[in-house]
Amino acid sequence: xxxxxxxxxxxxxxxxxxxxxxxxxxxxxxxxxxxxxxxxxxxxxxxxxxxxxxxxxxxxxxxxxxxxxxxxxxxxxxxxxxxxxxxxxxxxxxxxxxxxxxxxxxxxxxxxxxxxxxxxxxxxxxxxxxxxxxxxxxxxxxxxxxxxxxxxxxxxxxxxxxxxxxxxxxxxxxxxxxxxxxxxxxxxxxxxxxxxxxxxxxxxxxxxxxxxxxxxxxxxxxxxxxxxxxxxxxxxxxxxxxxxxxxxxxxxxxxxxxxxxxxxxxxxxxxxxxxxxxxxxxxxxxxxxxxxxxxxxxxxxxxxxxxxxxxxxxxxxxxxxxxxxxxxxxxxxxxxxxxxxxxxxxxxxxxxxxxxxxxxxxxxxxxxxxxxxxxxxxxxxxxxxxxxxxxxxxxxxxxxxxxxxxxxxxxxxxxxxxxxxxxxxxxxxxxxxxxxxxxxxxxxxxxxxxxxxxxxxxxxxxxxxxxxxxxxxxxxxxxxxxxxxxxxxxxxxxxxxxxxxxxxxxxxxxxxxxxxxxxxxxxxxxxxxxxxxxxxxxxxxxxxxxxxxxxxxxxxxxxxxxxxxxxxxxxxxxxxxxxxxxxxxxxxxxxxxxxxxxxxxxxxxxxxxxxxxxxxxxxxxxxxxxxxxxxxxxxxxxxxxxxxxxxxxxxxxxxxxxxxxxxxxxxxxxxxxx
Length: 674
Known about the structure:
Blueprint: E1 7-14, H1 20-31, H2 51-56, E2 63-69, E3 72-78, H3 86-93, E4 98-104, H4 111-122, E5 127-132, H5 141-151, E6 156-158, E7 160-163, E8 171-174, E9 179-184, E10 190-194, H6 198-218, H7 220-227, H8 234-246, E11 251-255, H9 264-274, E12 284-288, E13 294-297, E14 306-313, E15 320-327, E16 330-331, E17 334-338, E18 344-347, E19 349-354, E20 357-361, E21 363-364, E22 369-373, E23 383-385, E24 391-392, E25 403-409, H10 415-428, E26 433-436, E27 443-447, H11 450-462, E28 468-470, E29 474-475, E30 478-481, E31 485-495, E32 498-510, E33 518-522, H12 530-543, E34 557-565, H13 573-591, E35 593-607, H14 611-618, E36 624-631, E37 634-642, H15 649-657, E38 662-672
Parallel strand pairs: 1-3, 1-4, 4-5, 5-11, 6-11, 33-34
Antiparallel strand pairs: 2-3, 7-8, 8-9, 9-10, 12-13, 12-24, 14-15, 14-23, 15-22, 16-21, 17-18, 17-23, 19-20, 19-22, 25-27, 25-28, 25-29, 26-27, 30-35, 31-32, 32-34, 35-37, 35-38, 36-37
Helix pairs in contact: 6-7, 12-13
C-alpha cells in the first residue's frame, strides 16, 4: 500500500476462550473478505484452519491475514490464548505495532490476559480493548472495566455504554458522538446510528462526563475547556484519544458479542482511528553489525531493506518464513544478508499471506507482513537486510520448557524419519526442545505443557506419517549454581603433530531466578582476535545449557569471560571452546548445583459451593493460595503450585466442581526441589 499512514499492523491477543478467533472472523466477514461468518463450534473458521484447532476449538498457531477496511489495510495476526503456546504470542508481538486485547465480560481479566498485556507492554505496543461475550450469563461490563483499571494502572477509557447485559444485551451507546448503535440485518451487517433511548439517557450522559474527565486528567487542552465549562469539540477528543493511546497512557475499551455479530464494526473503525501506522513509530532501533552501534530504521520505502523473521512454517519441501518489513522495499529474488550470521541469502518467492492461503507478489514495502521462501540457515529472530547496511533487531528470548516426554518410533525403520520430523518441529517452535536421555539413549522432547506436547507430537503422525510411542509426561527439572566461583583453565593438547593451546579465566555466579535464564558477557581487555572471543562466547552459551552435576540442564547462571590468553600459531576457535568447556565443568564442581522445579500460577474458576473441596484437594499438593475472588455465583482461586503436583488435575476438576469448573496454568518461576 503506497499510503503507509493507512496501514495497521496489529495482533489479537487474550486469554484462551475470550473470543479472539470469533472477533477476527467478524472482521473478515464485515470487511467483505469472507461471505460467511466462521464459527468455532462448526469448525468453519478461516484463521483456525489446522485440524487440531478446529477439533479442539482453540487457536494453536498464530495466523496472519490482510484485511481491507474502508480506506485502511489491516495486517492482522490472530494469536493463541492457551499458555502452552505463549511463544506464538511472543514472536507475533515483535511483528506488530498495535494490539486488540479481548476480555470476556464473564471471566474478566484472567491469568493469560494479564500475561499477554504485560508481554505487549514489554514491546511498547499500544492497545485498544474489546469486552466480548456481553450476552452471556454472568457478563458485567462495569466489573471488567474495574478489573482492567485495578490490574493495569487505571488505563481503561470506556468508549461505549451497554444497553443491557446477559440475555438483555441489545446494543450500545457511542460515548463520543452520543448516539445509540443498533445492528440490523440478517447478520447484523447494517449499523444504524439512532438517538439514545430515554431510559439510557442519564446513564450515558454520566458515562460521557466520566470519559471527558479522564481525558482532562491526561490532556491540558481538554482540561482547559472542561474546567471553563465549554463543550469539547469531537475532533479534539478523537485527536487526544489517539495521542494518549499511542503514548500508552490510556486504552480505549469497546464492547460487544462477537458470536452474535454485535459491536464488530465499531471495533474495526477504532483500529484505524486509534492504533499506530508504521509512520507513527518514530524509528525502529537496530544494531549496525559492522560498527556495533545503535542505529535507526524508518518506515521509508527508499531506505535500505530491513526485515525481521518472526515465524516459520517448516516443511520438508520449502519453509515459509513470515517477515515483518520495517524499512525499504523487497523484491522477489533479492539477495539479502542474515544479520545474525553475516551470510548471504536469497528471497526466491514473495507471498501475501491469508491464513492458510498465499498469493505470490513481486514486491513489498515498509509495514508489510509477507511470506518468503528459499532462505537458507535462517531462523526465528533473525534480521534480513540489504548488503549495504547489515543490521540486527535482536533475537527473541523464549521461556524454558517445563515438561518432557520420551518419544520413539513404533517401527525401527522410521528412526531417521522421526529425527527429521522432530528437527523440523523444533525449527518451527523454539519452546519445543529435543534431547537424548544419557542413561537410555532415548529421544526426549520438552515443551511448555501437556497440551503443547500432545499437539506437537500428534503432527508427527498426521503430517509426517510416522507412528510413535510416547512415555508419561515428566517435569523438566533444571539445575543452577549454589555460589559464585572463578575458574582458570588451560587447554594444551597435541593431536597428531598439531599443538592446540588456549587459556581462559571466567567468573560464574547464580543469577536472580525471576529474570532471564542466562547472562553471558565479554569482560576481556586488550587486542584479542574477535573470532576467538566469539568462539568463547558461543562455547559459554552452548555449554551452560548442557547438563549440570545431576544431569539436568542448567539455568539462571551469569558468566563473564575475564581473560583469554592465546598464541599466534596454536590457538584456534576449537581450542578456545575446549578451554571454556573445561572451565564450565570445573565451575559446576567448585560451586555445586541445586535442582530447581518449575512452579505454576494456577487459577481455578468454580461454583462457590465446590471451592472447599477444591481447596482441600490442592493443599496437600503444596499449593499456596494467594487470593480468592467472587465473580457472581462463581469463585476464583489463585495460587502457586509445583508443576509436579498438577498431573491429573484436569481430570480431577470436573469431579470436584460438578463439571462446572475451569482452570489455567501459567509458569511463574522455579523453586528448589523439595
